[in-house]
Amino acid sequence: MSAPVATGRRRRGAGWLYYVGIAAIVVYCLAPFYWMVVSALRRPADQFSNALLPDPPSLDNLVAAFSPGNGFGRALLNSVIVASITTVLTLILGISAAYALARLEFRGKGTILSIIIATSMFPGIAVVVPLLQLFVDINWINTYQAMVLPSMSFALPLAIWLLTAFFRQMPFELEEAAQIDGCTPAEAFRKVIMPLAAPGVFTTAILVFIAAWNEFIIAVSVVNKNELKTANVIVSQFTGQYQFDQPFGTQMAAGVVVTVPLVIAVLLFQRRIVEGLTAGGVK
Amino acid sequence: MTATSVDARTVPAGKPRGHVTNRRAGVGRLAFLLLSPSVLVLGLVIGYPIVSALRISFVKTTEGIDANTGLITRTTGFSLDNYTNIFTGETGRLFWNAFWNTTTFTVTTVVIETVVGVCMALIMNRAFRGRGLVRASILVPWAIPTAISGLLWRWIFTSQGIANDVLNTHVLWTTEGIQSWLAVVIADTWKTAPFIGLLVLAGLQIIPAEVYEAAKIDGADAWRTFWRITLPLVQPALVVAVLFRMLDVLRMFDLPFVLIGRGKMSTDTLSILAYNEMSNLRFGPAAAYATVLFVYVAIVAYVFVRVLGADIVGRGVGRSK
């Protein structure tokens, strides 16, 4: 994101009201997340305390989240597997498609791009219903591929769109120079474009991974065996000691574990993420 | 999907003749090779479901007992029943209720999120120290999985939770009724208003400072500057952001599913209704609901692109330079 210097110079006398606004935004965004962390760090006995700090802090909820009965550790692994495979496959397909859409001239290009973008608006449930029936027929229920393949329905349009935007930004002289030097289009892509496109590919990878990691409706539909459920699904289905007692403390602790990698990614790569989000304008 | 046929036509079947045709055909063939895997996968995970859902939604399975053998027989046949059932009777009541919820969620959250998002963007548009911190914190609600944020808000809204404590009320937020509807709206607003803010901010930052200076010289006050300059110039970015938010809320599932639970009149969306049918293995009605939702989403998208001129493709492609 290019931050224009002019904006700052234009209005210097910010005033306290302005900093109140900034503070309000930060509190608005972080307060609920803070509450999740604080609730996770309370002792189970203090669970309903509404004090702003856990007193005394305890890791009991975290330990409980990983207790064998919950299957949370395995679920985290499942999430990593599903999100990683989805990201890798999506990137392989997406890079080649986006390269064609951004750098090659051929008929019907606009139509294809419009259709691919239109697919990203497709409601998840409309993908899941027919595919679930198909998966029942071919015995794919409770498999990784039953989660990975439908996830491509939102991941692939997202990746193609972002990558097309990134590939477009590179000067066209690059390939021309490469071709004058005797490269075929394929070689030009591999030797000239790819190294330069690496940052854009990386940004796309982060956004696709986050989207796949956060996926819920597919995972909750095509898997009913605890060993294959993803973290999001299993945390939402944690049961308490008694049937109607929702174990919020454990769920908040598990929620923190599921969220912390994403928050770290956001802190590390915020520039890239914002760049990707605003290039694509998608979630 | 049609994409394959469009694409296939660009690749000449015969051996290309002459140097120029040769090169063009080479590019066309390369494009075909590069695109076909993606088109194939999208055909499988989007194209197939559209066609299949349409087919399933018109099939009715009736179970009966064979009079002669006493065995259960299943007959399937073409029928409009799944659709007529959606719009009439008890199931019709559920459908229109879910349709109403989906629509009110969409309109309410998108309006609130746009207003809050634009305010955030206006504040953040002024250069200040600690910009990175604010940007990181604004990404936190976006990054949290919706299912987890649903749990988080369920915890905030429990009867003895922090929400009732702060408001000094004893509302049963997550049961049923208007307060549950409101809880979903609040949770959704928290998660996505910052996201809209981010997109609008990107739009604000490409407005040249000279425009504002000219307005100042002409004696425009802040209010007038906002309505006559900022808003019109940021509109293209805003329209696209709003469109994507709308399409996202129309298919809303995770948040009411986790925050309130399914089978609630006040918060069941069309997606949840379809999921309910599907989890009871009634694929016909589920597919009918899904198809109706798909058509609804398509109409909204069409109206946005045609009437409001949301330039989606242009943003993605960045209008070749």
UniProtKB/TrEMBL annotation, chain A:
Q: Which residues cross the membrane?
A: 16-37, 76-101, 113-136, 148-167, 200-223, 248-269
Q: Does the keyword Membrane apply?
A: yes
Q: Which residues form the ABC transmembrane type-1 domain?
A: 76-269
Q: Which CDD domains match?
A: TM_PBP2 (cd06261)
Supply one GO CC term from the record.
plasma membrane
Q: Which domain of life is it from?
A: Bacteria
Q: Which InterPro entries match?
A: BP-dep_ABC_trans_perm (IPR050901), MetI-like (IPR000515), MetI-like_sf (IPR035906)
Q: Which GO terms describe its biological process?
A: transmembrane transport
Record membrane topology: Multi-pass membrane protein
Q: State its location(s).
A: Cell membrane
Keyword annotations for this protein, in alphabetical order, are: Cell membrane, Membrane, Transmembrane, Transmembrane helix, Transport
Q: Which family does it belong to?
A: Belongs to the binding-protein-dependent transport system permease family.
The name under which this protein is listed is ABC transporter permease
Species whose genome carries this gene: Planosporangium mesophilum
Automatic annotation (TrEMBL), chain B:
The terms describing its cellular component in GO are: plasma membrane
One Pfam family per UniProt: BPD_transp_1
User: Which superkingdom, per the lineage?
Assistant: Bacteria
Q: Which residues form the ABC transmembrane type-1 domain?
A: 99-304
- What sections of the protein cross the membrane? 30-51, 104-124, 136-156, 226-247, 286-305
Q: Which SUPFAM superfamilies match?
A: MetI-like (SSF161098)
**Stretch forming the signal peptide:** none
Membrane topology classification: Multi-pass membrane protein
Q: Which GO terms describe its biological process?
A: transmembrane transport
Q: Where in the cell is it found?
A: Cell membrane; Membrane
Gene3D superfamilies in the record, alphabetically? Answer: MetI-like
Swiss-Prot/TrEMBL keywords? Membrane, Transmembrane, Transmembrane helix, Transport
UniProt xrefs under PANTHER family? GLUCOSE IMPORT SYSTEM PERMEASE PROTEIN GLCT, TREHALOSE TRANSPORT SYSTEM PERMEASE PROTEIN SUGA
Protein family membership: Belongs to the binding-protein-dependent transport system permease family.
What is the protein name for this chain? ABC transporter permease
